[in-house]
Amino acid sequence: MIRPDWHIVEEWIAPGRRVLDLGCGDGALLGHLIDTRQIVGVGLELEDDHVAACIERGISVIQEDLDTGISDWFTPDSFDYVIVSQTIQAIRHPERLLVDMLKIAREGIVTFPNMGYWRNRVQLGLLGHMPINRALPNPWYNTPNIHLCTLTDFEALCDELGIDILDRAVVDRARRESPLLRALPNWFGEHAIYRIRRRD
Amino acid sequence: MGIVQPQIARFQEPLALDCGRTLASYDIVYETYGQMNEARDNAILICHALSGDHHAAGYHAETDRKPGWWDSAIGPGKPIDTNRFFVVSLNNLGGCKGSTGPLSIDPATGKPYGPDFPIVTVQDWVHAQYRFMQRLGIDRWAAVIGGSLGGMQVLQWAITYPDALAHAIVIAAAPKLSAQNIAFNEVARQAIITDPDFHGGRYAEYGTIPRRGLMLARMLGHITYLSDDAMRAKFGRELRGGQIQYGFDVEFQVESYLRYQGSSFVDRFDANTYLLMTKALDYFDPAHGFGDDLSVALASVKASCLVVSFTSDWRFSPGRSREIVQALLAAGKRVSYAEIESNHGHDAFLVTIPYYHRVLAGYLAQIEGGSVA
Fold first, then answer.
1. DSSP annotation of B119
2. Which residue in A59, A62, A64 has the most chain B C-beta atoms within 10 A of its own C-beta, making it the best mutation to test that interface?
3. Number of CB pairs < 8 Å for A and B?
4. Where are the domains of chain A?
5. pLDDT in tens, B262-284
6. Does the model's pTM come out above 0.90?
7. Nearest residue of chain A to residue B330 (CA atoms)
8. Radius of gyration over every alpha carbon of chain A, rounded to an integer in angstroms
9. What does each C-alpha distance from B136 to B39, B62, B133, B139, B141 come to in angstroms?
C-alpha cells in the first residue's frame, strides 16, 4: 500500500541519494523510495518481525533501539537524507534524536501525528479524555506514543535546537493536502511532514 | 540431508603461509550438499568454527547418532536450502579430520607432522579455500557463511577476494579477539601443553595422548560457549546422587556434563590441532595492516553483508558484531544486522531459533531473486 504522505516524502528526495530511515518498520517506505527514486536505503528498526520483513524484501536494516543512540552506528554526513516517519513521538529523547540525526545527514524528514488536530482538541478540550482515533489509536495507558506534540510545539523545539525548517506539509484524514489545511494547519492537519536541516 | 560422503581434493602447488613457511602439497577434505546449477553461481561455502570440520550436515552412516554440526540450518527446505543452493563445507588446513594437519605425514620426513605442522592463520585458510573454489570450477560463491571462527573466515574472504563472493554472512563473530578471549585460549593451551603426556606435541611417538589437558581445554571452552542462563536452565544446582557427598567426585549435574563433553572431545579431536586453531583465532585481526582501522580494511569489500549476533553470547557479544557492522557502514558497504534474543550463549548459532532462521532464510531467499545483489 502506498500512503498519500509518501508522495510528499518522495517529492523531497532527489533520485539516487543515500537515505536512512529511522524506525523503518517493515521497510515499506524504503522499498517505495527504492522503486520510485532509486535511492540507496538503510533502515533502523527494533522489532524482530519488522527486521525480518525488511530482510525478506531485500532492504538493508540494522536492528537497534532508537532510544539507545544512533550516532554510534553512523558516521557524520554518511547519508543525504534521514527520515523519521511516525516514530519521533515514541522516542524517549526526541530532542536528542533530532540533533543526532542531523549530524548523520544534513537534511531530515520528520512525520508525526499532530496533537493540535481539531479532533484531538475536541476529545481532550471538550470531552475531557485523551484522544483515540486513527492517527492515535492506543489508549493512554498502552501506547508507544510518549511525546506527542503539535505543529507549534515541534517548530518551537526546532528553533531552540538550531534546526531550520525547509518545508512543511500537513495532510488530513485521507492524508492529502487541501486549502483549509494550508490556512489553518495546526487545526486541520492530522499528520505533519517536515523537511529540516541543521542551521550552520 | 540423508547420508553424505566426504571427498578429498589434492593440491600439488605449494602454498605460502603467513608464518613464512610453505606447504609443498596438501589435501582438503570436503562435503557437498545439493546440486551445482549450470551457471555455477548457486554455490555456498560454509566455514567451520574452532572444533568443527567438513561434516556440516547429514549423516555418514545409518548408525550415526548425531548429524553434521550445522544440520539445523542446511538441507532441503532449511534456511540454507539445498533445493536451491550447492553447499560446500571443508575441513581447514591444520585440522584433524582428513585435511592436511598435524596428523598427516610430512613428505619431508615420512613421519606425522605433529607439533612441526606450521602455524596457520585465517588468511592462510582463505587462500587455500580460494584455490579449492577454483578447483570446483566456481568463479564466485553466491554466499560465504560461517559462525564464530567461521564468521572471521567470511570477513577475511570479503576483504581478500572481494570479487569471489556475492554475499557474506557473519554470525556470532568478532573483528578480533579481546584480551579476555586470548586469555581463555591461553589457559586452554597451557592445560594441553603442561599435560605430562603432551611430550612437546610428540605424544604420538610416545604412544600417549594429553587426555587431561585436552579435556580441561574443552571443559573451559564449553563454559564460554554457554551462558549463565543456559547453564541454569539446563542444570541448575541439580545433584546427580540427590544429596551432597562432601567430596570431589562428580556431584552437580553441570560437573558431569562438562566431564562428559571433555572426555568425548578427547576421542575425536587432536591436541595439536586444538593448539593451532586457538592460535588462528588469537592472530585474526584484519585491521592490523590497515592502521587498526577496520573500516579501512573493509574498503575493498564488494559483497553484501549480513551480520548476526545473539544477546546472551558473552564469548563474542553483540557489541563485537556491532563493531563489524559499524565499520562496514562507515566504509559505505551494504549490510544488515540482526540481534537475536537467545539464552543459549555463543552456541546459539547452532540452535534452531525461529527468528534467527527466519532472518537467515529471508536473506538467502533474496539472493536468487537478485534484488539483494
1. P
2. A62
3. 57
4. 5-198
5. 999 999 999 999 999 999 999 99
6. yes
7. A75
8. 16
9. 13, 28, 5, 9, 11
